[in-house]
Amino acid sequence: MTEADPVIPVPPPTTSAPALRIAGLRKSFGDKIAVENLDLTVPSGSFYGLVGPNGAGKTTTLSMATGLLRPDAGTIEILGTDVWRDTVTAKSLVGVLSDGVALFDRLTGEQLVTYHGLLHGMDRETVAQRTADLLELLDLQEAGGILVVDYSAGMTKKIALASALVHAPRLLVLDEPFESVDPVSAANIRDLLAGYVRGGGTVIVSSHSMDLVQRMCDHVAVIGSGRLLAAGTTDEVRAGSTLEDRFVELVGGRHTTEGPAWLHTS
Ligand SMILES: Nc1ncnc2c1ncn2[C@@H]1O[C@H](COP(=O)(O)OP(=O)(O)OP(=O)(O)O)[C@@H](O)[C@H]1O
């Protein structure tokens, strides 16, 4: 699949508001401050990367941004709709692939995608057509009749992505979409997402692959310890070096030793 048109037409914009606007976002778990005073604006039509070290607050931020986790403070708007005041409208605008949220895995892959489509109020015929398209695009045709509980990690990721896409959302929020996915499927997913953005959609993707984010995303935000460290176009943020080098510079934490002596066999 190359230079593909968007598989699913993205509804035309009805607002000039950014795809996502976050202001003053905070979240603590007990004494642990996971997200601290975070401001972030994701322009409509962008392919936005969110990067940060383990425990930086990416999943917490994306969960709050998509109506899955209530913030302690701050506002979040998706295309001008306040996520926590008008959650139903906001959720209709967004497709979410979450890290670690359980799927209804006693359904087959086909049933799971169909369920998500029906949940969004789509008619059965459209849901069936789109489900078939998505299963084909994600190389899951043969697995469509198998229970999701029996899927591999990569297949589970792909069926969750299909479920997030079936209602043709205006904004797609993907937490670690390429984790466990084989290189061919990853390339197919990248083409699918690029086509989706060309068709007017917005993608936010969190990833630990700096190389992938640098190649794929036109904007990037770096977060560390729950705070925004840098944000802008990918070229602005990497400022002449590679995103990986810039990331290490911003985040720190590189160890200069080769580990304890007992790890060295000779
Ligand atoms: N439900 C929770 N209860 C307690 N602490 C939590 C909870 N969820 C997240 N945290 C803490 O909040 C911080 C941010 O976690 P988060 O999962 O958002 O990081 P992340 O950037 O997605 O990390 P990773 O790249 O490792 O997935 C971490 O210190 C984590 O331990």
From TrEMBL:
The name of this protein is ABC transporter ATP-binding protein
Ranked from the top, the taxonomy reads:
Bacteria, Bacillati, Actinomycetota, Actinomycetes, Micrococcales
Keywords of the record: Antibiotic resistance, ATP-binding, Nucleotide-binding, Transport
The GO biological-process annotations, alphabetized, read as:
response to antibiotic
The listed locations are:
Cell membrane
Pfam families named among the record's database cross-references: ABC_tran
The GO terms describing molecular function are: ATP binding; ATP hydrolysis activity
Family matches, as Gene3D superfamilies: P-loop containing nucleotide triphosphate hydrolases
Q: Which residues form the ABC transporter domain?
A: 20-250
Q: Which InterPro entries match?
A: AAA+_ATPase, ABC_transporter-like_ATP-bd, ABC_transporter_ATP-binding, P-loop_NTPase
A single GO cellular-component term on record = plasma membrane
Membrane topology, record value: Peripheral membrane protein
